[in-house]
Design goal:
The chain is about 45% helix and about 15% strand. It contains eight helices and six strands, in the order H-E-H-E-H-E-H-E-H-E-H-H-H-E. The strands form two sheets. A four-stranded parallel β-sheet has the order 3-4-5-6, with helices on both faces. It is globular, with a radius of gyration of 18 Å. It starts with a helix and ends in a 6-residue tail after the last strand.
């Protein structure tokens, strides 16, 4: 929504058409225009289509935010092949091919900014998130690879490390473990140096900075918005 308010055109890629419709409706009076492209990240062709539609509609791609990810819990000794494949298909394979097409389109219009949303798990991970940690570690490598090799094309890439955030997926997981929202916030307050979970209002300004020309010389960073969680 903030990008739309600032006058940028936004392409929303995903499977949740209802949520996208709500965003588009709420943005009707914004300076920018929003469209939805139904995208199943299990299908590499869908990744390509997302950028093809973006180019046909707006003639350019200046920024790409890769937020998609799944975080099912399983330790190394318990992780099934099916669970491993699901995590890697969404968390790294889809990101790999989306950034491939993002770079191809950004080269046409002289550059752009890519943000890959990572995790503190990338450096080691909790014991019950082994495959997720490995996928996020691979995503960090991808970010560094892009930032180094495509700087010559004026394409920047940064790895955004969000903190412990009460996303829908996190809340659903904790509920399945018998942990209430209130208890979750208490656990986070005790674990995070700044004393609370990361909220959406903490994250949006950082994203806007990385997408904008204010960060024109910022690339290859691990950009942490997590209350000191990874110190």
């Amino acid at each position: 929504m903030e990008c739309l308010k600032q006058g940028a055109n936004v392409v929303i890629g995903g499977r949740d058409e209802e949520s996208a419709a709500t965003i588009i409706e709420e943005s009707a009076k914004s300076a920018g225009e929003a469209i939805f492209v139904k995208t199943d990240l299990h299908d590499v062709k869908n990744c390509e289509n997302l950028f093809e539609v973006s180019m046909k509609t707006f003639n350019r791609v200046d920024g790409f935010l890769n937020y998609a990810g799944v975080t099912p819990a399983a330790a190394l000794t318990e992780c099934s092949e099916e669970l491993y494949d699901e995590i890697f298909d969404i968390d790294i394979k889809a990101a790999f091919f989306c950034t491939q097409h993002a770079i191809r389109t950004m080269k046409i219009n002289g550059g752009g900014s890519i943000i890959l949303v990572g995790s503190t798990h990338a450096w080691r991970g909790e014991k019950d998130r082994t495959a997720y940690a490995c996928a996020k570690g691979a995503l960090l490598t991808l970010s560094n690879h892009i930032s180094y090799h495509y700087a010559v094309d004026n394409i920047r890439c940064n790895y955004l490390v969000m903190g412990w955030t009460p996303t829908e997926g996190e809340l659903a997981l904790r509920k399945s473990q018998g942990i209430s929202v209130e208890c979750l916030h208490e656990l986070a307050s005790a674990a995070i140096p700044l004393g609370r979970m990361t909220e959406i209002n903490d994250i949006v300004p950082g994203i806007m900075y990385l997408l904008s020309d204010y960060s024109a010389m910022v690339t290859g960073t691990t950009f942490r918005i997590n209350g000191g969680e990874s110190i």
